[in-house]
Amino acid sequence: MTSLGNNTDGLEIGMVVAWTLSSNPSDAYLECNGQAVDSTKYPKLYALMHNTPDYRGVFLRGLGSVTSNHYGTVTHTSSNLGELQGDAIRNITGTTPAAAEESGGSFSGVFYSNGLGSGTGEWSYTDHRIGFNASRVVPVAVENRPINKAVRYFIKAK
Predict the structure, then answer these.
(1) How far apart are alpha carbons 68 and 99 in whole angstroms?
(2) Cα separation of 61 and 80, whole Å?
(3) Contact between residue 53 and residue 37 where contact means Cβ atoms under 8 Å apart
(4) Quick one: pLDDT at residue 32?
């Protein structure tokens, strides 16, 4: 057992800490996994909440807004306190010549030729298929996420 939770650690009941070890901290802390708070063992935390927050698999984000200029001016805004905000990415846009292969133009970035349609006769703009694949220019996965390392979150319970 690790000795994080004691009366002299300076943390208030309800404060959340990131935990990097596979072993649990002392029983003064509960994992933030949505579990019920035992009202007899943790009466002060129970007075604040009946279940611990569930922070598994999500990123915690500071409340409020800030503007950055890393890749153009962007205002980053959190949801309301304690509210789960869905994932999103910035819009990916681009252009390509209408008939890049036929006119000697070339596709770039996320665009590529997806072949011609199965129509017969002369080629027309409606027969050409243009593909869009973000993985041609950025890493992709089944979720949106920043570079990260996993931690476990615990809440001070007593």
Answers:
(1) 38
(2) 11
(3) no
(4) 98
Residue with tokens 């909440």: 49
So what's the pLDDT on residue 3? 46
Q: With CA atoms as reference, report the closest residue to 87 among 148, 143, 149.
A: 143
Going from the C-alpha of 103 to that of each of 67, 130, 138, the distances in angstroms are 43, 14, 28
Taking the C-alpha atoms of residue 44 and residue 28, their distance in angstroms, rounded to an integer, is 12
Give yes or no for a contact between 37 and 54, defined as CB atoms under 8 angstroms apart: no
Is residue 1 within 8 A of residue 140, CB to CB? The reply is no
Instruction: Quick: pLDDT tens for 96-130.
Output: 766 544 555 677 788 877 766 555 555 555 556 77
The model's pLDDT over 45-75, given as tens digits with 9 standing for 90+, comes to 999 999 999 999 999 989 999 999 887 888 9
* Amino acid at position 51, single letter: N
| Distance (Å) of CA 117 to CA 18, 101, 106 | 54, 14, 19
